[in-house]
Design goal:
globular; 28 helices; alpha/beta; 6-stranded parallel β-sheet; 17 strands; 7-stranded parallel β-sheet
């Protein structure tokens, strides 16, 4: 295996073309890489799949010494290392799953300058003996991946990441590059302060993932909704299905397995061996679904995930962006589909309030949840809302459900006043079904027993039916005008914002929800996106593409690596369309460099 002395003094563009097989850099990659090669610090915020890894890999190869990559999960380091080794790059890792002998061997190679890139978890990096080892090595740079974990403003704060501030004190002359796909302005400011990057550059490369189609639908028999979505749009694709709890994960995976779908559960309640087995199958095989809690996904490098399906809402816009970003990393079309219900918001609010976090942190998390709920209930372009949250912008995209099927709205002011008044006059302790019965004037035994048939709100809501009132109440929870008590029996109470609404006689527009169908999504995964204009023009091209995929899988199994480590789908598409007739012509295909050509 080569080490970085083979690549020293090479220009970044030489590395890109000869090792990685790409002609030109994308977006800000070249500026970032040249800045770090020259010894500068940087914070890089770049969408998943936009090429963040090149921003530290190439500088590590061009500079003298080893690049230390800090990654939060050891489970996927090996696949990243395998991909680098396919390019002839000497990459390795040190983590707790390795034998003592292997770790010692890797340390000897480090001291001998035989390693280009070394992946470590923050816990390992912070060990005193490991820091002492690094002080004896020639260091090219420190790359802190998933850097949002460092900030308490971030959506996935991890205490060990916060201690990485010592890098600037212990190794002041070694370039530090922090990378993430999800960091709003407060999170970026926090990362810069924690890692002492004030003298470095900040690169925000936009947040748009134009190949992803976003859609949200209200919950109505969610398993059947998920089934229709998969059957109509992704019957032969790999995808991730996120559920809110371990129990929901197990139930959904079993339900899909009964329908002959290869659906593997993944959550913290499974044994480490089972999690590793399911993760490896997902990464290395095709047409495999993973049903998971948020324990699954960070660092997933699989480029051909064609969809991410949320059975419940995540906890924030950052989490949603991060999780949906695991689809379509190869730039080919992908879907992000979310099934959304009122009880999701209540569950998340309960978890926030019941946590041991300080009050300021709870306030931040409530704000982030409110932003996500607003996204779910949106009547305008979802992509615009998502990008605006991160300080980015776009025109109406025509690649989300609200652009394709413009939601109707109505003046909900009077309806909201009636709903809030009903909650107040019934004592702020009853659930949605009971409140709707009161508004519709139903004389049930329970209503008569509590005497609510004599209240002024009894029967004042007959202009809407039960389904319409359910939509109204769900939107009131989303707007934080009502809160749900999930510890008790789901009773609704009026929030401070709800009281201000009544007091100020505010106006409000609400969505009119048609019956949601999975078929309202565009089947984007079956066609090429604007970012990938290649099309398989005829049956011969399609047959050749399938033969190439089969050969790729055969090679991957023989080398015990994921298929995408051999070639990405995009490379196979180019091969099937352009059909190069010589080795030199093959070098013109994106993803084929000198080393892979030799293979």
């Amino acid at each position: 295996m080569q080490n970085n002395t083979d690549f020293q003094l090479k220009q970044p563009l030489d590395c890109l073309q000869q090792l990685y097989g790409y002609d030109t850099f994308r977006s800000q990659q070249q500026e970032i890489i040249e800045h770090v090669v020259q010894g500068g610090h940087a914070l890089v915020v770049m969408p998943t799949g936009a090429g963040k890894s090149l921003c530290y890999q190439i500088p590590a190869l061009c500079r003298s010494g080893v690049g230390i990559v800090v990654s939060p999960l050891i489970a996927l380091m090996q696949d990243q290392i395998a991909a680098l080794q396919q390019l002839g790059i000497a990459a390795g890792a040190i983590h707790s799953g390795m034998s003592y002998g292997y770790v010692q061997q890797m340390k000897d190679r480090l001291l001998a300058g035989e390693v280009d890139l070394l992946y470590v978890a923050p816990e390992r990096l912070l060990m005193p003996e490991f820091l002492e080892l690094l002080q004896r090595c020639s260091l090219a740079l420190f790359a802190i991946d998933e850097a949002h974990c460092l900030s308490q403003w971030g959506h996935d704060f991890r205490p060990h990441y916060a201690q990485l501030s010592l890098l600037g004190k212990t190794f002041p002359d070694v370039p530090r590059i922090a990378l993430t796909a999800t960091a709003d302005a407060p999170t970026r400011k926090d990362i810069v302060a924690q890692l002492q990057l004030q003298q470095g550059n900040i690169y925000v490369d936009g947040f748009d993932r134009p190949n992803i189609y976003y859609a949200v639908t209200e919950r109505n028999n969610p398993k059947q909704q998920a089934w229709r979505f998969i059957q109509e749009h992704h019957p032969q694709d790999s995808g991730i299905i996120y559920c809110i709890s371990r129990k929901k994960v197990d139930e959904m995976a079993a339900w899909l397995q009964e329908r002959d779908v290869c659906a593997l559960p993944y959550h913290a309640g499974l044994s480490p061996r089972a999690r590793m087995e399911h993760q490896n199958r997902f990464v290395r095989e095709e047409q495999v679904l993973v049903v998971a809690t948020i324990a699954f996904g960070m660092g997933i490098d699989k480029p051909d995930v064609r969809f991410v399906l949320h059975m419940n809402i995540p906890k924030s816009m950052e989490a949603y962006y991060q999780e949906t970003g695991r689809a379509g990393r190869d730039g080919l079309p992908a879907n992000a589909y979310m099934i959304y219900g009122l009880e999701d918001a209540a569950m998340h609010r309960h978890w926030i309030d019941d946590s041991n976090a300080p009050d300021n942190q709870k306030r931040i998390e409530h704000q982030k949840l409110n932003a996500l709920l607003g996204f779910c209930e949106a009547s305008r372009c979802r992509r615009k809302i998502l990008l605006e949250y991160f300080g980015d912008s776009c025109d109406a995209c025509n690649r989300c459900d609200t652009c394709d099927h413009k939601p109707e709205t109505f003046d909900g002011t009077i309806a909201v006043q009636k709903a809030l008044s009903c909650v107040h006059r019934t004592g702020q302790r009853f659930g949605v079904s009971y409140l709707i019965d009161v508004l519709l004037g139903k004389t049930t035994d329970r209503i008569q027993r509590f005497g609510h048939h004599r209240q002024t709100t009894f029967g004042i809501g007959t202009q809407y039916n039960k389904k319409q009132w359910q939509n109204i109440f769900r939107q009131l929870v989303a707007h934080n005008l009502l809160a749900v008590d999930i510890v008790g029996h789901g009773g609704l109470s009026i929030t401070l914002k709800g009281r201000a609404f009544l007091r100020n006689k505010d106006l409000i527009a609400l969505r009119t929800y048609p019956k949601a169908q999975a078929s309202r999504l565009k089947p984007t995964a079956t066609t090429a996106s604007s970012s990938s204009p290649l099309q398989l023009q005829n049956e011969a091209d399609k047959a050749l593409y399938q033969r190439l995929k089969a050969l790729r899988q055969q090679l991957a199994k023989a080398q015990n690596v994921p298929a995408y480590v051999i070639f990405h789908d995009k490379t196979l598409l180019e091969l099937a369309v352009h059909k190069p007739q010589s080795l030199q012509a093959m070098l013109q295909i994106n993803g084929i460099g000198d080393v892979k050509l030799q293979h």
